[in-house]
């Protein structure tokens, strides 16, 4: 009985294994990129729907709702008139319009088409977007995308109250 003394793999076997590994890693990379794109799209939809909900709440209550944008979150405020006619922005306390946090790896930037004159003190934040009780909105553009990348989506609010979402090509 002869015993074969061939130890190791043939060149064909090595090439087949390398080919299989490259296909699997290529599919994995594509799914990771696609997953990040879906996250950005999902967050954009959530922001647009939340803005529309804020607009509906402003008309139903009736109230003036303000939105203050930071790098980490969208925060919602109500305008309260105090005795003596002075108005003050206070954070909303209902569950419908809670603070909306920006997920890790994404960024949101605000561009106004109308400059607001706001006086912001350290104690009180003045909202950058205001929704009136009749549904009118201060004109704005919110750009959403991955960190350190060009924006992929834009949410636009017009003075007539329309809020639209578009993909940037």
Structural commentary:
The chain is an alpha+beta fold. The protein has a single domain (11-167), classed as minor pseudopilin epsh fold (3-Layer(bab) Sandwich). The protein is 30% helix and 28% strand. It contains one helix and nine strands; from the N terminus they run H-E-E-E-E-E-E-E-E-E. Strands 1, 2, 3, 4 and 6 form a five-stranded antiparallel sheet that branches. Strands 5-7-8-9 form a four-stranded antiparallel sheet, with helices on one face. It is rod-shaped and about 105 Å long. The chain starts with 10 loop residues before the first helix and ends with a strand.
CATH class: Alpha Beta
The counted number of beta strands is: 9
Helical content stands at 25-40%
Which consecutive residue ranges, at least 5 long each, have pLDDT under 50? 118-122
Shape: rod-shaped
The chain-level mean pLDDT equals 84
Structural category: alpha+beta
Q: What do we call the CATH topology?
A: minor pseudopilin epsh fold
The assigned CATH architecture is 3-Layer(bab) Sandwich
Rg over alpha carbons: 26 Å
**Total of DSSP H or I helical runs spanning 4+ residues:** 1
Task: Describe the secondary structure blueprint for this structure.
Blueprint (H helix, E strand, L loop, with lengths): L10 H50 L4 E5 L3 E9 L5 E5 L8 E2 L4 E7 L16 E3 L8 E7 L6 E5 L5 E5 L2
Antiparallel strand pairs: 1-2, 1-6, 2-3, 2-4, 5-7, 7-8, 8-9
């Amino acid at each position: 009985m002869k015993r074969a003394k061939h130890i190791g793999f043939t060149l064909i076997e090595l090439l087949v294994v390398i080919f299989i590994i490259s296909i699997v890693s290529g599919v994995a990379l594509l799914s990771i990129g696609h997953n990040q794109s879906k996250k950005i799209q999902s967050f954009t939809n959530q922001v647009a729907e939340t803005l529309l909900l804020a607009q509906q709440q402003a008309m139903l209550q009736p109230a003036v709702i303000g939105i203050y944008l930071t790098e980490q979150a969208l925060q919602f405020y109500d305008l309260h008139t105090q005795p003596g006619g002075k108005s003050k922005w206070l954070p909303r306390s209902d569950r419908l319009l809670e603070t909306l946090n920006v997920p890790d790896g994404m960024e949101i930037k605000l561009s106004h088409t109308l400059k607001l004159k706001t006086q912001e003190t350290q104690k009180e934040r003045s909202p950058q977007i205001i929704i009136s009780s009749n549904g009118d909105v201060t004109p704005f553009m919110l750009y959403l995308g991955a960190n350190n990348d060009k924006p992929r989506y834009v949410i636009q609010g017009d003075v007539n109250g329309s809020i639209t979402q578009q993909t940037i090509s």
